[in-house]
Description:
Elements: E1 2-5, E2 16-19, E3 29-39, H1 41-48, H2 55-58, E4 71-79, E5 91-95, E6 106-110, E7 115-118, H3 125-131, H4 134-145, E8 153-157, H5 162-173, E9 177-182, H6 187-192, E10 197-200, E11 213-218, H7 225-228, E12 232-240, H8 245-256, E13 261-264, H9 272-287, E14 295-300, H10 304-311, E15 319-323
Parallel strand pairs: 8-9, 8-11, 9-10, 11-12, 12-13, 14-15
Antiparallel strand pairs: 1-2, 3-4, 3-6, 3-15, 4-5, 5-7
Helix pairs in contact: 4-5, 4-9
Amino acid sequence: xxxxxxxxxxxxxxxxxxxxxxxxxxQDEVLVRNYAASITRADTFMRQGTPKIARLFVGLQKPQHPxxxxxxxxxxxxxxxxVTAFQTxxxxxxxxxxxxxxxxxxxxVNTKTEVIRPLPTELNYSEAAAVCDGALTSFNFLIHLGQLxxxxxxxxxxxxxxxxxxxxxIAKINGAEVxxxxxxxxxxxxxxxxxxYVIDYKKEDFTQKAKSYDLIYDAVGVSSFxxxxxxxxxxxxxxxxxxxxxxLCCSLGTRLFGKQKAIFAATGLTPVDQLQAFLxxxxxxxxxxxxxxxxxxEYPIEQIVEAxxxxxxxxxxxxxxxxFPDPRLQEVI
Length: 333
């Protein structure tokens, strides 16, 4: 099978497409023939090994798991006898979390320690592969960590990305007022996702405005708690999935002192049963098209370097996915 291999940290050029043996499913595993896999901003951090504190989880000197990627969507082609919840031919999607391995034509998924779910017929493979990046992460931050309530005011930084677009829609579904921060070129796009107000970060500084927010969700980690606290309500929360020393210190400090909170979390470290519960709430929105997955670009696996190069331009809108050939099931195994 073809797989994206990364044996050292670095720029997109460290990624190679290699031929590897098709995995054999072990205890509690199913083998999935991948039709689409997500390419995310988090993938670039993993490829670079940045920030270095993250290497405690992904490998100190080099990637612990050389096949990259976490989001997948495809069909089950083989199951271990211990698995009864899935059968050959089932359409599935999910997230391999810190086990990685999703940027490959086949991926062995552990049904107990990784996220795998039946794929609703209303979603195509590309959409499904991206669900566990933008939608799942933003749900975790806004609903679980942010404890979003109807009529609260939410500001989303990086609103035109995968996390940001999902966050706009999730906040609106839950009755919030949403202000989106992005470039002026993407203003109409985020308005279509439901944003009530748009701030062009190239022209305006939201921290200089008189308006305050109950939640500030910095989806791209370009601001900080110290910069935003003056536009947070007295019990407001600054949320970000991007780790750095500042957010770690502020997160610890605000746990102990003050009513305003700075919150960092790695959704990939959340217990699998909790992630499954989040998806139980997200899926009906996806099926009803209250929540949509915007696909910016699709690349064949051979163009993985180009996909990462585009991702690093900062011009990505929504999601990027790798598409794989779709052979007949009986020809796979």
